Amino acid sequence: MLVEMGQSHLFRDWPDPGVDDQEKLAFFDQIKLLNESYPGGLASYIKTARELLEDSRLGKNPFDGFTPSVPTGEQLTFGDDSFINFEETGIKEARKAAFVLVAGGLGERLGYNGIKLALPRETTTGKCFLQHYIESILALQEASCGYVEVMCPRSSSGGCRTEIPLVIMTSDDTHARTLQVLKSNAYFGMASTQVILLKQEKVACLADNDARLALDPKNKYRIQTKPHGHGDVHALLYSSGLLKKWRDEGLRWVLFFQDTNGLLFNAVPAALGVSATKQYHVNSLAVPRKAKEAIGGITKLTHADGRTMVINVEYNQLDPLLRASGYSDGDVNCETGYSPFPGNINQLILELDSYIEELSKTGGSIKEFVNPKYKDASKSAFKSSTRLECMMQDYPKTLPPTARVGFTVMDTWLAYAPVKNNPEDAAKVPKGNPYHSATSGEMAVYRANSLILKKAGIHIDEPVKDVFNGQEVEVWPRVTWLPKWGLSFAEVKKKVGANCFVSQPSTLVINGRNIHLETLSLNGALIISSVDSAEVRVEGAIQNKGWTLEKVDYKDASFPEEIRIRGFRINKVEQLEATYDQPGSFTLKPQ
Ligand SMILES: O=c1ccn([C@@H]2O[C@H](COP(=O)(O)OP(=O)(O)O[C@H]3OC[C@@H](O)[C@H](O)[C@H]3O)[C@@H](O)[C@H]2O)c(=O)[nH]1
Ligand SMILES: [Mg+2]
Question: Pocket around ligand 1: residues whose beta carbon is below 6 Å from it?
């Protein structure tokens, strides 16, 4: 096959039989793996690569024949009646959902040495993204089962058996460390069988326009490989057999999400509610997008022949597409101060039946692209080897016109704060655009929680502006809570009274389910923990020196990397710590 596919250069320098035989056999083991892990095998990979490389060489526009325009979608406003209704519907549906986390990426832009899932989402509690995700899914599971028990009380005797599956797609770069974090933390409270790891394989690198495979510079008996992109998740899910198993178990939805968005679960219940209400086959979550922000734009594409689709146009392709379509300024903000195209946050909700139907046709393969960096304008040679890539959000590209494809826009403060950029690059982001750094990711958690409490009626001080690692951010009170404390806005409202106050320098950690803030006035730090069977009312004024933020320079190697990249550490000067580990009713009333 390799010879037929024009790959004889791979063997050209091989010594005679008897020399390096083990290495030669290992070469064929690798070929076998590359062949098996690609839909249609290596021959198909090479054939597609030739076509895409030729298109790239000719400078063909991948959107040739399509005209972009701004699509209309569902716009949600946090906290209004429709939002609250969507959240309630979403929580009911959650027990019919499976979650899929794509976490095979290296995070090259962030440059962190560990896996991104193990990074703290915020450093007040120090809980990592993975723990927060798992606790959020468990909270959804319990809340969703609560509805079942109310609807059919007989099932309550044996408790709710639903376990919402969590699939994590890993790669050789992340697999072992992801498994290790899960195992050493008892899967953060999930059953170990509830979490399924699927490892994506890398794909062969291409050395030239003829799609000759590139040899590993360090080993002439190995082919160089690189990641194929998060689009692999569809083929992996399909070949794993999980989708059909889920369908047989009565599941209806598959929710895809990415490694470092600390706000995502603020948006999940309502977004799922939109999918269920509108019966969307595909629902993409979006936020208002700043021009040139490194997030894809959701775009309506209309072909000359009348076909239309609503699809993500990746951030590096939006500007050229707009320029080629008569928008001479390209990717710019409109009068609202935002790009007219909603920004894709790559949280997709797919309806399971139609997903299986589509994958039965495609096997899960996703439209690929190639992005070679040429040596010069002749486009005859590459600076370094390239490979085919694919993106999970390109899934709708092959759907029939009858498919119900929609999107849901929410506020950025509520739904999106990824950690993708290292401090140096973040500080260079155009003014007014989000930093997407560890600093902004953590500050966004405090801001969102503060704003949610504020909307629920608590008086919260205005934030102060401060600069960490060269990035100016708003610093709100450091408020965090367990997902099961405030899974939805309705839930938060039930637990806070109108006469509460939290000052700007304060820290409030809510570590329990049934904690009611009745008349709390906080100026300092309060860490309150309780078991589920304890009901705690918090009343009165709490005043102490609290927890302060101290600046840390990202170049200061005396601090651990996860602290340096955010530019501050928390100095725990003084706090009131209250723990309720017995069932019963309690009141915390310091004065
Ligand atoms: O091969 C890969 C590459 C990436 N990934 C995962 O995919 C997720 C996204 O990766 P990146 O953070 O590199 O993605 P990007 O920032 O380039 O863009 C992505 O997020 C923002 C959206 O607006 C873009 O449309 C989307 O492509 C991460 O969770 C990463 O771990 C894989 O699982 N495998
Ligand atoms: Mg990337």
Answer: 102-105, 169, 171, 227-230, 258-259, 294-296, 312, 314, 344, 346, 391, 393, 420
